[in-house]
Amino acid sequence: MPKQIAIYGKGGIGKSSTASNVAAACADEGYRVTIIGCDPKSDSSITLLRGRRIPTIMDLMREGEDIKEEDIVFSGYKGVKCVEIGGPEPGIGCAGRGIIVAIGLLRKISTAIEDTDLVIYDVPGDIVCGGFVAPVKKGLVNEAYVLTSGEYMPLYAANNICKGLSRLEMTLNGVICNSRGAPNEEKIVSEFAKEIGSQLLAFIPKDVLVQTCERDGFSVIEKAPDSAIAGVYRKLAKAIMAEKSAKIAVPLSDARLRELTRI
Amino acid sequence: MPVKQKEPLIMHPRPSSIVAALYTLRDLDTDVVILHGPPGCSFKHARLLEEDGMRVVTTSLDESGFVFGGHDALVEVLEKVIKRFNPKRIGIVGTCASMIIGEELHEAVMDVQPDVPVIEVEVHAGYRDNTKGVIIALESALASGIISETEFERQKSLLKEATMVEKRHGAASKEYLEPSRGDLKYKVAERLIELIKNGKKGINILNAKKETAFMFADINLAVAQVAEKMGKSSNIINMANLDEKLGLPKNRRNAREVKDDLEKAGMRIHHVIGGLDEYPIAGITASQIIGEKYTDFDFAVITGVPHALPMDNLKDMELFSITNGPRQVVPLKEMGHKHVVVEIDLHPKTLGVNHIVESEFGATLRELAKDA
Ligand SMILES: Nc1ncnc2c1ncn2[C@@H]1O[C@H](COP(=O)(O)OP(=O)(O)OP(=O)(O)O)[C@@H](O)[C@H]1O
Ligand code: SF4
Ligand SMILES: [Mg+2]
Prior knowledge:
The complex is a heterodimer of chains A (263) and B (372). Chain A is of the alpha/beta class and 263 residues long. Chain A contains eleven helices and eight strands. Chain A has helices at 15-28, 57-63, 69-72, 95-109, 134-137, 152-167, 185-195, 208-215, 220-223, 228-241, 254-260; strands at residues 3-9, 33-37, 74-75, 81-84, 118-122, 143-148, 174-178, 200-204. In chain A, strands 3-4-2-5-1-6-7-8 form an eight-stranded mixed sheet, with helices on both faces. In chain A, helix 1 crosses helix 10 (228-241). The longest helix of chain A has 16 residues, at 152-167. Chain B is an alpha/beta fold. Chain B is built from 15 helices and ten strands. In chain B, strands 7-6-5-8-9-10 form a six-stranded parallel sheet, with helices on both faces. Chain B has a four-stranded parallel sheet with strand order 2-1-3-4, sandwiched between helices. The interface between A and B is medium-sized, with 16 and 13 residues. Iron/sulfur cluster is lined by residues 16, 18, 37-38, 40-42, 95-97, 125 of chain B. Magnesium ion binds at residues 15-16, 39, 43, 122, 124 of chain A.
């Protein structure tokens, strides 16, 4: 069975860029990787496809077409399989239902989430409804990670996600710090990880390379393989692929969170 | 922007997949079904199914259930159902509301851990063909070992045929179908009696969907009785899809019950053309037999699903069709059926029965034959 992971975290914190860089780093290591974009804005795989936007499952379903695997699974950097679920414009329809339907179709017509070593579900920042946890509820996710910076609001979101995961009886496999340049960040996130019963897997510094590569349609792994930040993503990829213990996270009280970020 | 559809839009309301799933669970001898959704969902059929001895309850999701999810409600109802009814087989059926918000029926089952089989049917009413509801229910029954792979495949191919029948000449054949009450029963009965009396040769076919046979068979029986009364029995050939060895448990039972009643009333069935769930294909069998043996016959009476009979071997005969669908009249007339009679509200009267029930058209035939 492949490792099936989802990376959760506050909106805009860096989940998609982390996911695509980890995907690229794992592909470099020779792993077969599949990335499933579960965000209606379908921006999970662009940097693995040199800036190309692929048709989304929901777009094709809407056209009423008879969808085949090759219409929705695209090969990106070093053979990473890229799938975008897509969905409606903000404020219209029901994106959550879209995810449920699309996952069902994907399982039926494609082996991309079984015949592989690593599946990454890239979910949007806010799990607004049942649909967004469909991959977890359908048993398609066996490892969950939380991405956060050391600031209060992202940590607050991370803590809430831990609550959600424990409600679903889903274990947490690690915390990743994506730095926003706040003081003492690594220490704060590391302490947070420890207190909820998990561990800090990587500290990703803020680096403008991430954004410039992204703008040109690349991961840093592909465009700047020798950069320091590429090294950080590689290390994170190794940590994710390694076997490690996972426990159900114990969320902190809000008071404790505030105190923690005051360090 | 309207959603583009591969197939053309159909505007008239049609049977629901949720309801189709409910009837399928009944055919599988399910004791209690929990509808996970709003209290009024599928109300009319839920009520009717109680006549057949299957209980239907609802988790009664309301506005706050839609917003906050209905997991707890489902667990509660499942527990209550087990306590109150002590069922041997339970079904849980989804609805649009619960499926859109992503309810996992299985989660509640895992929480409660009932020690009887639970058939979980993740269905909503948004499928183009209501047979989808049957297929999902059967898939789940297959997964829980309640039906065999062979039966499942058999059912699936029948359903595919049923869908095709509706597309060709049935409820899914047109963008909009006008409902109609059909031709006047006594006029049609008069003409039919005239033909029988004049010694014309006729084929008397029952091709009914499942339990509707309880009433449709009454019409075929009336035809046979009228012919008998006029000493013309030898001119009439009877066919019926009453094979008691085919189909889900309830369908087999019903086939036997209808057949027993017909035989007791002295009607001989010359050709059994299939099982009660074979109405989409039994018509083809009937047509073949007609092509081989009865091409020179003058008229045919077809009850149940007349539009499933190919026209090739019937087109030179005067056709008398009896349907229970007001929207079936127009397509039947277009196919070339001269007389189309509607037995309105037939289905409800065939639930909870195990003997033939009197039909209006059957009664009309018997009455008019008295002084013919
Ligand atoms: N380590 C980093 N250094 C610099 N910029 C970063 C870093 N990580 C992410 N970014 C930038 O932050 C922005 C938001 O990142 P991204 O889209 O990955 O966030 P997200 O968590 O997926 O957002 P959403 O919740 O909306 O899906 C992007 O422009 C990305 O390039
Ligand atoms: S819309 Fe769907 S869930 Fe609501 S009542 Fe109708 S069939 Fe039931
Ligand atoms: Mg993202």
